[in-house]
Amino acid sequence: MSVAPHFQRVALIGFGLIGGSIARAAKLQGLASEIVTTARSEKTRARVAELGIVDHVVATNVEAVKDADLVILCIPVGACGPVAQEIAAHLKPGAIISDVGSVKGAIVRDMAPHLPQGIHFVPAHPVAGTEHSGPDSGFAELFINRWCILTPPEGVDAAAVDRLRAFWAALGAKVEIMTPDHHDLVLAITSHLPHLIAYTIVGTADELQQVTESEVIKFSAGGFRDFTRIAASDPTMWRDVFLANKEAVLEMLGTFNEDLAKLTRAIRRGDGEALFDHFTRTRAIRRGIVEIGQDSAAPDFGRPHPPLTKQ
Ligand code: NAP
Predict the structure, then answer these.
(1) Rounded to an integer, what distance in angstroms lies between the CA atom of residue 262 and that of residue 163?
(2) What are the start and end residues of each CATH 3.40.50.720 domain in the chain?
(3) Which residue's CA is the nearest one to ligand 1's atom 10?
(4) Could you give the angle at which helices 158-170 and 17-29 cross, rounded to 10 degrees?
(5) What number of helices (H) and strands (E) belong to the chain?
(6) Which numbered atom of ligand 1 lies nearest the CA of 240?
(7) 18 C-alpha to center of ligand 1: Å?
């Protein structure tokens, strides 16, 4: 078990689901003497101040990073390059700079060229989230028992990597290190493709609504509603993910289309054995996820069911 690190000043650029959750958990764990965050609009700044989680909420990213020894960009992937450029000259020498973006190759490509010598760049991705966004959506327990993947570029200071690893461990996460390309390939199948499928099926059903007279919503408990949770995820975040991880997503989509064609053929040919074998294999995958503690074993995702009252 690593010792929890202590930072004098942590700057969180962006106070949405992830930034807000880091702030809440870091505060609870006493990981920083001071936490400062940015919020672009007057309204969000007022709300963050009202929540009382961070010590300072400021309007500009430059102001936030002043004297910070840990800076974490908690903003959409597409905004990370421009923000790195904006803050680069204002970073404290020796500071660790990180992010939480869902794509890593593009983050390294877009941020690294702007960062001066003496700054330790350790990109990160906490594989944890919900479909909610904004300053009220975060919660301190979000990272407990979830993975946080670090993708440090070659040659980065090992002590800085260790400090960030210990920071995430103190937030409750299990930490793993991999290359940005490997991360992007793994996440393309485990996260990005499922989101694309959910966005597609919900869109298709929405178009069918006109034909089915709102029955899509009425009978959604048949499976559809589980896709709608994923498809309710933040549009800006997911636009950036697909633009930034284009190659890996297209590769996985190719494999997916081939497998979909195989199942389509099995249905057309009435090949029950092929369907049964396939569904048996996928059921075992679900059990495996529950077994390693990455989801609850409760049926129907633990949704509450009202009691049946006697008529
Ligand atoms: P979110 O709740 O929408 O929050 C994003 C925050 O970024 C908002 O506070 C937004 O401010 C701010 N922002 C956007 N552009 C900015 C800029 N140029 N300068 C300063 N602030 C800016 O999003 P989130 O879910 O926390 O996602 C943040 C990052 O975490 C993304 O890169 C995403 O890929 C990654 N991530 C998300 C999840 C997930 O499930 N949601 C999981 C793991 C990783 P305004 O309110 O003023 O627009």
Answers:
(1) 47
(2) 7-178
(3) 14
(4) 90
(5) 13, 9
(6) 34
(7) 7
235 lines ligand 1 (CB under 6 A): no
Gap from CA of 99 to ligand 1 centroid (Å): 10
C-alpha to C-alpha distance for 306 and 75, rounded to whole angstroms:
39
Per-residue pLDDT of the chain (311 residues; tens, 9 = 90+): 567 888 999 999 999 999 999 999 999 999 999 999 999 999 999 999 999 999 999 999 999 999 999 999 999 999 999 999 999 999 999 999 999 999 999 999 999 999 999 999 999 999 999 999 999 999 999 999 999 999 999 999 999 999 999 999 999 999 999 999 999 999 999 999 999 999 999 999 888 877 666 788 888 888 899 999 999 999 999 999 999 999 999 999 999 999 999 999 999 999 999 999 999 999 999 999 999 988 888 888 888 888 999 88
Residue in 44, 75, 192 to alter for ligand 1 test, most ligand atoms within 8 A of Cβ = 75
Task: Establish whether residue 234 lines the binding site of ligand 1, counting it when its CB lies within 6 angstroms of any ligand atom.
Answer: yes
Can you name the residues that pair with 175 across neighbouring β-strands? 148
- CATH 1.10.3660.10 for domain 182-294, yes or no, is yes
Looking at CATH, the fold of the domain delimited by 7-178 is given as Rossmann fold (3.40.50)
Which tokens go with 7? 């930072």
Residue 14 Cβ < 6 Å to ligand 1: yes
